[in-house]
């Protein structure tokens, strides 16, 4: 079974945030569990499923509506999943674009994925698609190598941060650290699972950045670079019986711009230089990352 954020809690007693609920619903839409025209469950049913108050569900639905994923939004009945008809070649939100690109990358014998990100939440969710294809026997790479760079636990993050200052104990930092570690463990577990069940040579490594990356970067087999900028927003979230007002980035909504090595000189140079940049960070100023 592929473990997701739906069945692995970051903290045993922690409730999912509205952003996390929205991301779970986005993933269900992306993989086809929820199809265009389907009606969502009621707010009460969603609140019961996720173990949250209706207010968190309403915020999640508003986020999906702003993304254009819901239609017929009214107080009288649950909304429906909207028809999606993105123009070919146009940049798409990370949650929409990453899964298909990973699936294509996994179709080669030797898979290599290098990532710079703030947390691995979107990567963890998007990975479910290629892993499902492996479990169904539709693709079978000989080897899979993942290298992931994320911010160190020991730095003062540029984001997320409280809108107002904090004391010695920073709840926003603690929340981010718990999410970073839990999501990375799920990513690691799901990749290692195909090693034990399908005897694929799998290597997963994490290293810690001494700075907060302002963008996310995915390098796929040295042939494609996907770049997205973290867009900061001011928002509130309930965490351990507190309301945190913070500046944060909604990474799943970042538009991913694709650069293909085969597309021509400019794209090829961008992919090559991005790979050199990643390799240099990996081999120089980064440090071991402990998921604890």
- Side by side, the strands of the main sheet go 3-12-9-8-4-5-7-13
**Count of domain modules:** 2
Q: What is the CATH class of the largest domain?
A: Alpha Beta
* CATH fold type of the largest domain: Endonuclease, Chain A
Tell me the number of strands: 13
Distance between the termini: 24 Å
Order of H and E elements: HHHEEEHEHHEEHEEEEEEHE
Radius of gyration from CA coordinates: 19 Å
If helices are DSSP runs of H or I spanning 4 or more residues, what is the number of helices?
Answer: 8
**Strand-pairing-aware structural class:** alpha+beta
Into which percent range does the helicity of residues fall?
Answer: 25-40%
Mean pLDDT across the residues is 87
Q: How is the main sheet built?
A: 8 strands, mixed
CATH architecture of the largest domain: 2-Layer Sandwich
Low-confidence stretches: 1-13
Inertia-based shape: globular
InterPro entries: Tscrpt_reg_HTH_GntR, WH-like_DNA-bd_sf, WH_DNA-bd_sf
Organism: Streptomyces viridiviolaceus
Domain HTH gntR-type: 15-84
Protein name: Winged helix-turn-helix domain-containing protein
Describe this structure in words.
With 292 residues, this protein is of the alpha+beta class. It folds into two domains: 18-81, Winged helix-like DNA-binding domain superfamily/Winged helix DNA-binding domain (Arc Repressor Mutant, subunit A, Orthogonal Bundle), CATH 1.10.10.10; 92-288, Endonuclease, Chain A. 37% of the residues lie in helices and 24% in strands. The chain is built from eight helices and 13 strands. The strands form three sheets. It has an eight-stranded mixed β-sheet, sandwiched between helices. It has a three-stranded antiparallel β-sheet with strand order 6-11-10, with helices on one face. Strands 1-2 form a two-stranded antiparallel sheet. α1 (18-31) crosses α3, α2 (43-50) crosses α3 (54-66) and α6 packs parallel to α7 (171-198). It is globular, with a radius of gyration of 19 Å. The model is unreliable at 1-13 (pLDDT under 50). Keywords: DNA-binding, Transcription, Transcription regulation. It comes from Streptomyces viridiviolaceus. Residues 15-84 form the HTH gntR-type domain. InterPro entries: Tscrpt_reg_HTH_GntR, WH-like_DNA-bd_sf, WH_DNA-bd_sf. This is Winged helix-turn-helix domain-containing protein.
């Amino acid at each position: 079974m592929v473990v997701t954020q739906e069945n692995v809690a970051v903290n045993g007693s922690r409730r999912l945030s509205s952003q996390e609920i929205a991301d779970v619903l986005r993933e269900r839409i992306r993989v086809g569990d929820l199809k265009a025209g389907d009606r969502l469950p009621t707010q009460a049913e969603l609140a019961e499923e996720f173990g949250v108050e209706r207010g968190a569900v309403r915020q999640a639905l508003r986020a999906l509506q702003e993304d254009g994923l819901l239609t017929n939004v009214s107080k009288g009945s649950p909304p429906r999943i909207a028809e999606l008809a993105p123009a070919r070649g146009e940049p798409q939100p990370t949650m929409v674009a990453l899964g298909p690109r990973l699936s294509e990358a996994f179709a080669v014998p030797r898979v290599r994925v290098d990532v710079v990100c703030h947390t691995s939440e979107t990567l963890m969710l998007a990975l479910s698609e290629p892993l499902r294809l492996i479990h169904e026997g539709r693709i079978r790479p000989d080897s899979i190598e993942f290298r992931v760079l994320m911010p160190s636990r020991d730095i003062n993050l540029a984001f997320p941060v409280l809108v107002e200052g904090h004391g010695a104990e920073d709840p926003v930092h603690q929340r981010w650290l718990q999410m970073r570690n839990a999501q990375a463990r799920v990513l690691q577990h799901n990749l290692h699972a195909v090693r034990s069940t399908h005897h694929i040579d799998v290597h997963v490594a994490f290293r810690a950045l001494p700075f907060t990356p302002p963008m996310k970067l995915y390098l796929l087999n040295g042939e494609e670079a996907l770049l997205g900028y973290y867009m900061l927003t001011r928002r509130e979230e309930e965490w351990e019986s507190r309301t945190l007002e913070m500046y944060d980035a909604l990474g799943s909504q970042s538009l991913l711009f694709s650069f293909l090595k085969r597309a021509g000189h400019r794209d090829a140079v961008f992919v090559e230089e991005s790979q050199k940049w990643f390799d240099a960070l990996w081999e120089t100023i980064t440090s071991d990352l402990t998921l604890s």
